[in-house]
Amino acid sequence: MTATATVEVAIVGAGMAGLAAAQDLLRAGVRTIVVEKSRGLGGRVASRRFGEALIDHGAQFSTARTQRYRILLSQWQEQGRAAVWFTGKHHGHRRWRGVPAMNTLAKMLGKTVPVELNTMVVTIDQDHHGWRIITAGGSEITAAALILTPPVPQIIALLQASELSLPVSLLKQLEMLTYESCFAVLACCDAPTALPPPGYAASLKEPLAWIADNQQKGTSPIPGLTIHATAEFSSARWEHERRAVGKTLLEAARPYIGKVTIIDYQVHGWRYSKPRQVYPEPCLMVCEKPPLILAGDAFAGPRVEGAVCSGWAAAALAKELLTPH
Predict the structure, then answer these.
(1) Most exposed: 64, 119, 132, 187, by fewest CB within 10 Å?
(2) In a domain, 103, yes or no
(3) Angle (deg, nearest 10), helices 16-27 and 304-322
(4) Distances (CA, A) of 198 to 193, 207, 225
């Protein structure tokens, strides 16, 4: 990115909400850029190579409850980029996965989106003409409208660091949108696990939330596990040494995975794994002139689909606010 870039809409965060918003805006001819602090797309729709294994260590699947999102997944299925993993027992919703891995869904959304990776936004400034976004590297982006999609506590911190005050009532609403933390264990095994088909077990005993077998899922060419801990276990041990946490979770998983040998394992911590509360609207307009909009899975439901729908709603609102009346 050049020292100064000028666009119509700047989006902070290249998770599913930010990418969905950007894709819609670009298709409408709106000059848009996305900035992302990490090195990859997708946020918690994350996959990682671990030795010869390929492991989804964030969201394991996506359901599709809205027509537009169902059509999108069906299109990706036709392109060989999405597939049905299994169908839920209780509500009958299909569980979709990315092909080969979950982060393929983010890559599909971001295929034509200009994204600046490894770019941390440190402050944002407002004037009558729009927004000025300052990055840790010293570059600047000027935009007529701004969409923020990080987890809400990070949005609040950014606004405070930028000395942008919110109405007290709105700040209280946002502060109520808290998140669960979660430890994720990624493990390579010497043999297939004992998990029954389709390779997914949920609603387990403490400290386990769920276990997924990435080989049965069709993601990994060799046996590879994902284990997510409960929010209670994760928050209570957040500052503990990660290898020790992983060992505890692997021992707890033993009755489910059988007598396989764990060749190696890693532990990832999701500080903002899932929103505990959800804002009633799919996005939130903080400022009309110049437009400042908040989006993400805390605004439309704590699911992959919720984040995408929130991004679409934010894009529609941004286009409306930027259109001369």
Answers:
(1) 132
(2) no
(3) 40
(4) 12, 22, 13
**Domain extent at residue 161:** 4-44+108-177+278-322
Tokens of 178: 């808290």
Nearest CA-CA partner of 285 in 257, 313, 259: 313
The one-character DSSP state at 140 is E
Identity of the amino acid at 59: A
Q: First and final CA of the chain: distance in angstroms? A: 33
- Cα–Cα distances in Å, from 68 out to 73, 74, 141? 9, 10, 32
Q: Residues near 197 by Cβ (< 8 Å), separated by ≥ 6?
A: 216
> What is the SS3 string spanning 39-90?
CCCECCCCEEEECCEEEECCCCCECCCCHHHHHHHHHHHHCCCEEEEEECCC
Strands 140-148 and 292-294: parallel
Decide if 102 is inside a domain: no
| Predicted confidence (pLDDT) per residue in 45-70, tens digit | 999 999 999 999 999 999 999 999 99
Which of 275, 293, 312 is where one domain is finished? 275
CA angle 10, 60, 12 (to 5 degrees): 10
In a domain, 194, yes or no: yes
Q: What is the pTM of this model?
A: 0.96
Instruction: For residues 173 and 118, state if they share a domain.
Output: yes
Q: What would the pLDDT profile of 249-288 be if each residue is shown by its tens digit?
A: 999 999 999 999 999 999 999 999 999 999 999 999 999 9
